[in-house]
């Protein structure tokens, strides 16, 4: 194929498509962040223990409970949370009205199991074993 046989690129159209695509992504991100910003009215803080192999992270972390997950994020429920730039598995061990953390809380990412899979007795036993 010679250069004269190749179809001409419509750069203005390509640029227009990229701009429209970027605006659509930005609108979707704004909508998602607005939904995450609405936290539950009752006990908006979930104390989550993370499934991580690192001993120095063996404690509970506070996360905001979005309105959409308020009914399912009960103690014992399995969740996905954002931690150190990755989605990490965790278990809700408690819901609270306030957090000791002074900054903004990251919302729970996803409710993996609305059914409690970690009973309080098993959670206490795991804590005792981990503390030894």
- Main sheet, how many strands, which sense, barrel? 5 strands, antiparallel
Q: Tally the helices: what do you get?
A: 2
CATH topology of the domain at 45-131: GIY-YIG endonuclease
Strand content: 15-25%
The strand line-up of the biggest sheet is: 2-1-4-3-5
Average pLDDT metric: 85
Name given to the CATH architecture of the domain at 45-131:
3-Layer(aba) Sandwich
Structure write-up:
With 132 residues, the chain is α+β, with helices and mostly antiparallel strands. It has a domain at 45-131: GIY-YIG endonuclease (3-Layer(aba) Sandwich), CATH 3.40.1440. The protein is elongated and about 65 Å long. It has a 5-stranded antiparallel beta sheet, with no helix packed on it. The model has no long low-confidence stretch (mean pLDDT 85). It is built from 2 helices and 5 strands, in the order H-E-E-E-E-E-H.
Structure at a glance:
The chain is an alpha+beta fold. It has helices at 11-37, 120-131, and strands at 45-50, 60-64, 78-83, 86-96, 110-113. 30% of the residues lie in helices and 24% in strands.
Sequence-ordered SSE layout with sheet pairings:
Layout: H1 11-37, E1 45-50, E2 60-64, E3 78-83, E4 86-96, E5 110-113, H2 120-131
Antiparallel strand pairs: 1-2, 1-4, 3-4, 3-5
Characteristics:
GIY-YIG endonuclease; 5 strands; 132 residues; alpha+beta
